[in-house]
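Worked Example 4.2. Consider the chain below.
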Amino acid sequence: MPASFDPTRVPDASWRALGRALVEGGLGERVLRETERILPARHDALRLPLVHRALRRDPSTGAAIARLFVYDDALERDRVEAVLGAELVAQLVAAGALEVRGDRLVAHLHVTPFADVLVVSDGLTAHDPVIPPGPTTLELSRCLPARIEGARVLDLGCGPGSIAALLA
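Applying the procedure from the previous section yields the following structure tokens:
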């Protein structure tokens, strides 16, 4: 993330509104499952152009949101505002989470659906990136017991804490 991004400048209510808008807009595991089938286990520099092409051909709102918040693609501002609302977009731009590039927006954070939670992390171009959960993390989560009560769990140095968020 650029040095100008300050997540504390986005009110908690706005983070919740972002989460609701993304879920209602269709950002979910279906979109990720389909895009992760494109050249699996390949470096993003090789596969991202193909992922972008596939998502641009998908007319769904979920695919558009995935382009912006998961796969580092610019999206038309009016399309983003149709999903998030102009006020929330303005707050995210002011905080540096979204950057205006002409009539498009670029995200400086990743929002990845993971089981029943949305995990916010920075992208791979950040100075010291926190890697978002990927297919391996999702597979690991499927190995967890359905309920863990009274147990202590340590999720240290494991990316954005996806497993800890899921267990919580």
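The first helix runs from residue 12 to 25. Residues 27 and 66 are 6 Å apart (CA to CA). Compare this with Example 4.1 before moving on.
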